[in-house]
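S.,

As promised, the nicotinamide-adenine-dinucleotide run. Input:
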Amino acid sequence: MTKILLTGGAGYIGSHTYLALIQSGFEVVILDNFSNSKSDVPRRLQDISGKMVYCFNGDVLDRTDLDNVFAAHKIDGVVHFAAKKAVSESVVKPLDYMHNNIGGLLNLLAAMDAADVRNIVFSSSATVYGDTDVQPIPEDHPRTYTSPYAFTKIAGEQILEQLPNTWVVGILRYFNPAGAHKSAMIGEDSEDIPNNLLPYIAKVAVGELAELVVFGDDYDTPDGTGVRDYIHVEDLADGHVLSLKSLLETGESHTVNLGTGEGSSVLDVVAAYSEACGKDLAHTIAPRRDGDVAVLTGLPEQAKARLGFEAKRSLGDMCKSSWAWVSGQRRNKR
Ligand code: NAD
Ligand code: UFG
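Predicted complex:
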């Protein structure tokens, strides 16, 4: 059976990808340092899948941790999720971001090379496109960075592009992941006040936060609020399965957007979430947030052509699954 290592596999996107891979018949091993995930995620994955979870508590910055995983398991391919991801924090702590995200990738690639594993899927981001009027954005659009976080993603892509052709690389540029697993047993989990829209609205819906602050209603968009290409995290997970299959079956590298090609405004999301949870959601309008762009949507055609990937789930599905997850968590806390 084909065995895949997920670095950062206990995180939001990694845990959903774990389940999609298991469901597709892969064996999966997780390496995570739990710096941004909860220690009970492996147990939850076991409960959902009914299968034993192999999880190493380790760091991609630690070469010994990586060598131990490759010695214990015959790995055929790696999906590298492990990274720090908060854009605003990266502005305050750029060196931490470069160390973890670029240093971690370099360390991982060296360990993979030593173990003769040269298939890798890399979590990149739509952030590599910077601020552009070209919408939806095609993959050949020039890259430019607007934050240290974005810099680390461009650097990661460039490092992978320098590898010899004995390596097979899938670069996946995610647009805005949202929603939770259909089991409502895993999802985006944050103790802090979220920076991102969906987890913030979710906290308003469960009553942990009083109201949503909408950052700007004076953009050049249909209702004046920011427009994004939200993609259900389970669709994103399916995209990783297809990416890995393509790498392993064709031996050819690819760089693709993972999005829907459709844009939704902040107010569209508020309306969809309100319908999902059956309540009005309080929101006020505030000035634009520094660094935000008006519109960010991705052309999904390459993912369809190269991987056969198409997002199937709607914004309503994202909101309903998020609500099932957060309201269930809330009940468990009581
Ligand atoms: P997440 O924080 O939920 O998951 C990342 C996981 O990596 C966490 O479990 C964390 O504990 C782990 N980790 C971090 N540094 C590590 C290290 N040095 N060693 C071992 N484990 C480490 O984030 P996510 O939303 O699941 O994102 C996964 C990947 O996708 C990241 O690379 C992120 O940059 C990228 N991405 C995310 C988004 C998004 O909006 N969520 C958008 C585009 C790209
Ligand atoms: N927004 C609000 N209020 C909030 C949070 C967000 O109005 O409390 C608005 C933003 O202004 C934006 C939209 O909701 O118009 C989406 O914002 P998010 O913070 O959810 O997402 P971003 O598009 O800003 O950023 C996300 C990831 C980044 C990644 C980027 C591109 O957080 O890591 O997508 O993929 F770089």
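The two ends are 42 Å apart (CA to CA). The longest helix spans residues 94-114.

- D.
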